[in-house]
Design a protein that fits this description.
This protein has helices at 2-18, 29-69, 74-89, 109-121, 125-132. It has five helices and no strands. The mean pLDDT is 76. The longest helix is centred in the middle third of the chain and has 41 residues, at 29-69. The protein is 71% helix and 0% strand. It has 133 residues and is mostly helical. This is Complexin-2. Keywords: Cell projection, Coiled coil, Cytoplasm, Exocytosis, Neurotransmitter transport, Nucleus, Synapse, Transport. InterPro entries: Synaphin. Residues 1-112 are annotated as: Disordered.
């Protein structure tokens, strides 16, 4: 019977907590929480350091490949292209031909005439004569 009374005493403590009663506070709980937070911060720093080292190693390998095959970084290519465009535009009042997109009116008229001639070949004789006049 004494055993069962001890069980009920433990149960009433838990019931008191569930019903909104005050919980027993562990005097070392704050220290434990601070230690836990510090451990998490430390783990996060170690993880970031590890990833930074891995990325540095990857970049070394990438650079070796670039050097071996004579490739350039994307940023370097863009910078060179931009410099070339600015250099071409410096003394000119008009924009360079490369900057004009294809199909914006800079087509040769010879191409258009050859297309017209090609179409006229497929027309019957009297229609060809009408269009040639």
């Amino acid at each position: 019977m004494i055993k069962s009374a001890a069980c009920f005493a433990g149960a009433t403590k838990d019931m008191g907590k569930m019903l909104g009663g005050e919980e027993e506070k562990d005097p070392d709980a704050q220290k434990k929480e601070e230690e836990r937070q510090e451990a998490l911060r430390q783990q996060e720093e170690e993880r970031k350091d590890k990833h930074a080292r891995m990325e540095a190693d990857r970049e070394k390998v990438r650079q070796q490949i670039r050097d071996k095959y004579g490739l350039k970084k994307k940023e370097e290519k863009e910078a060179e292209e931009k410099a070339a465009m600015e250099q071409a535009c410096e003394g000119s009042l008009t924009r360079p031909k490369k900057a004009i997109p294809a199909g914006c009116g800079d087509e040769d008229e010879e191409d258009e005439e050859s297309i017209l001639d090609t179409v006229l070949k497929f027309l019957p004789g009297p229609l060809q004569d009408m269009f040639k006049k």
